[in-house]
Design brief:
This protein has 7 helices and 6 strands. By secondary structure, the protein is α+β, with helices and mostly antiparallel strands. α6 packs antiparallel against α7.
Length: 204
């Protein structure tokens, strides 16, 4: 988590644009080493035009997006370099970033950091991959809903129901002398059946 990670975020191959993303405390510092403009005082969520360079040699004409923590996907400083598509140029830009202090991100590490930094819960993190792999609009819609926290909200409501059932049972056992709502096996089974049906519905 202390490393600044970098990776190509777009599909490998020939295309108009390739995006390379950095995330971490040193994202701006590392980008500054290979970019023709100083990003030290750049405002968050701004785009900057310039060139990626290797020494005095210009490698590519790019647009660099600066997004400062905590209002980013990973809740870390994030830089995205939009360069021209093509394997050779994209790989060269990534290589320069790695040579200047970034570490190559592991698969899914940007989302992992978003989860570990409290940006999203586990269900939302899993939905990112579901959205990427969606083949139909229905699948994509379900993934977007899960990413927005729809599934987490439903699960938390079910969790609350289970905690309420436990509290009722414990109160009846611990304080039988008080006039507490009668908790019977039948009433508990009825509530648990309802919870089971909700879980089966979510699973479908």
């Amino acid at each position: 988590m202390e490393d600044t990670i970098a990776a190509i975020s777009t599909t490998t191959g020939v295309g108009a644009i390739s995006i390379i993303r950095l995330s971490g405390e040193e994202a701006l510092k590392i980008t500054n080493k290979v970019f023709t403009k100083d990003l030290t005082t750049a405002a968050s969520h701004t785009i900057h035009y310039g060139y990626i360079k290797d020494g005095n040699e210009k490698i590519d004409e790019v647009l660099v997006s600066v997004m400062l923590a905590p209002k980013t996907f990973s809740r870390e400083d994030v830089v995205e370099i939009n360069c021209h598509g093509g394997i050779a140029t994209t790989n060269k830009v990534l290589e320069l970033l790695l040579d200047n202090g970034a570490r190559l991100a592991e698969p899914g590490e940007f989302t992992k950091r978003a989860f570990l930094n409290g940006r999203m819960d586990l269900a939302q993190a899993e939905s990112v991959m579901d959205l990427i792999n969606s083949k139909t609009s229905r699948e994509a819609k379900a993934s977007i809903n899960q990413l927005k926290g729809g599934l987490s909200k439903e699960i938390n409501l079910i969790k609350k129901q289970l905690l309420d059932i436990m509290a009722d049972i414990e109160a009846t056992i611990d304080y039988p002398e008080y006039d507490i709502e009668n908790v019977t096996q039948k009433s508990v089974e009825k509530k648990l059946k309802s919870v089971k049906e909700e879980l089966e519905h979510l699973e479908k």
